[in-house]
Design a protein that fits this description.
Elements lengths: L8 H9 L1 H14 L1 H5 L4 E2 H8 L3 H13 L3 E4 L9 E4 L3 H9 L4 H5 L11 H5 L17 H13 L2 H9 L1 H4 L5 E5 L5 H8 L5 E6 L4 H10 L6 E5 L13 E5 L7 H14 L5 E5 L5 H6 L1 H6 L13 H11 L2 E6 L5 E5 L6
Parallel strand pairs: 4-5, 4-7, 5-6, 7-8
Antiparallel strand pairs: 1-3, 2-3, 8-10, 9-10
Helix pairs in contact: 2-6
The structure holds S-adenosylmethionine (SAM).
The site of S-adenosylmethionine has 17 residues, from helix 9.
């Protein structure tokens, strides 16, 4: 049985150079249904060739391409290729759908004007080439930029929605009002309401985002419990009256002093016993890889610091500011929860 191993720099360079062909292989395997057959595996070349009406020798080479990406375990018990069996690594179907499927996050990212920097990175690194404000501005400036950015954010919310749902029993009992700070178009807040019948959720965001949240509210299963509060979190204190606040993919947008200021504002706004939730792509090599597009694109956007920080940064910050009961709840992305000390009124 062959097993997947980490790539050497030399091997990775060949895969990178042939990246568009690799994407072609994975897209084909996903769209014809091969990945659905391979993931439960093991399945023999003969079975696959019969089921998908493909020629065994051609399929053997195609599967070598998939294996070279580290996506398959293979067992070749004899010289007869038909008896070779394959199994895809767990999670491959979902990963392929997320990257190259019809509603893939990477396809959405690809619509941003990254070509402005392509081939001009050296000039960009020297500050001679940047993303123009009309192309992309952080925070978004025009209504059009705002809408396309918030929609992109909603496309990538899957792991956050799952983690919040997984821990709903821990988070929401006894809580009445939740404020999602910098809560995009309200997609997460709308999902949370499905798991928390006694909760009312508001999205706090720049006023220009109001129409997008209103659209989400109208389409939500709980329109009467979803609201919007317009504001600028740097220009004013965070609203009070909420017993749970969240920063989801907000703090990494800002330099450390600003991120700290936002967490302090959350502390001030919460009542004793109030809950603060922080969720984002806490820095690991894997998440840095998934974030590759933005790391590249934002080279040309100085107003976005794009600081993926380790989870320990946030747990330490929360403790310094005075939060207690700080926990890291597991999930696709971990969820950091912390409490403002004191008893609820
Ligand atoms: C990276 S997005 C994350 C959106 C959402 N939480 C998610 O994960 O999909 C950052 C959010 O912060 C909001 N934001 C940026 N600057 C803000 C400010 N000064 N006051 C309030 N919200 C702000 C943006 O409009 C956007 O919704």
């Amino acid at each position: 049985m062959t097993t997947t191993t980490a790539f050497s720099p030399r091997a990775l360079m060949s895969l990178l150079f042939n990246g568009s062909k690799a994407v072609d292989v994975v897209t084909t395997a996903l769209s014809v249904g091969l990945l659905d057959a391979l993931e439960p595996g093991p399945v023999s070349l003969r079975e696959l060739a019969d089921r998908f009406e493909m020629q065994p020798l051609r399929l053997y080479k195609f599967l070598d391409c998939l294996e070279s990406l580290g996506f398959l375990d293979r067992d070749e018990p004899s010289d007869d290729i038909n008896q070779t069996t394959y199994r895809a690594v767990p999670g491959l179907c979902a990963a392929a759908a997320a990257a190259v499927g019809p509603a893939a996050i990477e396809r959405d990212r690809d619509t941003y004007p990254w070509q402005r920097l392509h081939g001009r990175l050296a000039e960009s690194l020297r500050g001679e080439v940047s993303m123009a404000d009309d192309d992309f501005c952080w925070p978004p400036k025009t209504d059009e930029q705002m809408e396309s950015f918030e929609r992109s954010m909603s496309v990538g919310l899957g792991p956050v929605i799952e983690t919040f749902a997984q821990h709903a029993d821990r988070l929401w009992p006894g809580r009445r009002r939740f404020l999602d700070v910098g809560g995009g178009a309200g997609t997460l807040a709308a999902h949370v309401l499905g798991d928390a019948p006694d909760l009312r959720a508001d999205v706090y965001n720049l006023p220009a985002v109001a129409p997008l949240v209103e659209e989400t509210r109208k389409q939500s299963a709980h329109p009467d419990r979803l609201g919007f509060v317009g504001g600028d979190f740097f220009a004013e204190p965070l609203p009070t009256g909420y017993d749970a606040l969240a920063f989801v993919r907000v703090l990494h947008d800002w330099p450390t002093p600003d991120a700290r200021r936002l967490v302090e504002k959350a502390y001030d706004a919460l009542p004793p016993g109030g809950l603060l939730l922080i969720c984002e792509e806490f820095r690991t090599l894997d998440r840095l890889a998934v974030q590759f597009f933005w790391s590249y694109f934002l080279i040309g956007v100085d107003s976005s610091v794009s600081r993926l920080r380790e989870v320990d940064f946030y747990t330490a910050l929360l403790a310094e500011i005075g939060f207690t009961d700080i926990q890291i709840l597991p999930g696709g992305w971990e969820l950091v929860v912390a409490q403002k000390p004191g008893r609820p009124a």
